[in-house]
Design a protein that fits this description.
The protein contains 8 helices and no strands. By secondary structure, it is mainly alpha-helical. The chain has helices at about 1-30, 40-55, 65-80, 80-85, 105-120, 140-160, 165-170, 175-195. The protein starts with a helix and ends in an 8-residue tail after the last helix.
Length: about 200
C-alpha cells in the first residue's frame, strides 16, 4: 500500500510539473502581440507581390528552390569531385554555369527573412517562442516540425516546386499542375490533421 501511494504521489507530481510548464509556455505565448493583419487583405497584397514578381523577374515566388541551391553549393564545397560527377548535382556545375547561389530564389528568400525581421520588430512580436498545443512539450514540437519540414522538402523536389513555387505561382498563370499541387498539398493536410491533432489541441 505504501508503494502504491508513493507511485501515485510521484505520478501526480509529474502531472503537476507538466501542467505548470505548459501554463508557463502558454503565458510566454500570450505575452506576444497576437494582433495580425486581416487574412483577406494579406492575401490581396500577396497576390500583388506575386504579379509584380512575374512582371519584373519573369518568374514566380518560391522557397524550397532556395534551400536546394544552398544544399547544392554546400555539397560542391565539401566534395567537389563527387558533386561534378553526380548525375543530379553535376547538372548544376561545370564550365559556363553560374553558382546556384546567384539564383533569383536565394535573393528572394534573403529578402523574405529581412522583411520578416522588420515586420516582427514593428509589430512587437520579435521574441523567441515555440508555439504548440497545451499537451505538447516544446522539444516534441520541434522534433515534429523538423520531420514535417524534411518530408515537405523532399516532396517539393519530387513535385518540382513547393506551396509558393508550384501551387501559388502555378495557379497565378492558370497552370493545371499548379491547381493539382494546391489540391494535393491542402487535401493531404486535411486528411492527416486528425491523426496529429494532439500537437495543437
Amino acid at each position: 500500500m505504501l508503494l502504491y501511494r508513493t507511485r501515485v504521489s510521484h505520478h501526480h507530481r509529474i502531472e503537476r510539473d507538466l501542467q505548470s510548464e505548459s501554463n508557463d509556455h502558454r503565458l510566454r505565448g500570450s505575452e506576444m502581440n497576437t494582433k495580425y493583419m486581416n487574412p483577406y487583405l494579406a492575401g490581396f497584397f500577396l497576390g500583388l507581390v506575386l504579379l509584380a514578381t512575374i512582371f519584373i523577374t519573369g518568374r514566380g515566388l518560391g522557397a524550397s528552390g532556395a534551400v536546394k541551391d544552398v544544399v547544392l553549393t554546400t555539397v560542391h564545397a565539401i566534395a567537389p569531385a563527387h558533386a561534378e560527377h553526380s548525375t543530379f548535382f553535376g547538372s548544376y556545375f561545370g564550365e559556363g554555369k553560374e553558382s546556384p547561389m546567384k539564383s533569383w530564389l536565394v535573393f528572394e528568400v534573403i529578402g523574405v527573412l529581412i522583411g520578416a525581421f522588420i515586420s516582427g520588430l514593428v509589430s512587437d512580436r520579435l521574441k523567441v517562442v515555440t508555439e504548440s498545443g497545451p499537451r505538447v512539450q516544446p522539444k516534441l514540437r520541434w522534433i515534429f516540425a523538423v520531420i514535417g519540414g524534411a518530408l515537405f522538402g523532399a516532396g517539393a523536389q519530387f513535385a518540382r516546386g513547393c506551396t509558393s513555387g508550384a501551387a501559388l505561382s502555378g495557379m497565378a498563370v492558370l497552370s493545371t499542375a499548379g491547381f493539382i499541387a494546391m489540391l494535393a498539398i491542402f487535401g493531404t493536410g486535411f486528411a492527416v490533421a486528425y491523426f496529429f491533432r494532439k500537437l495543437w489541441i
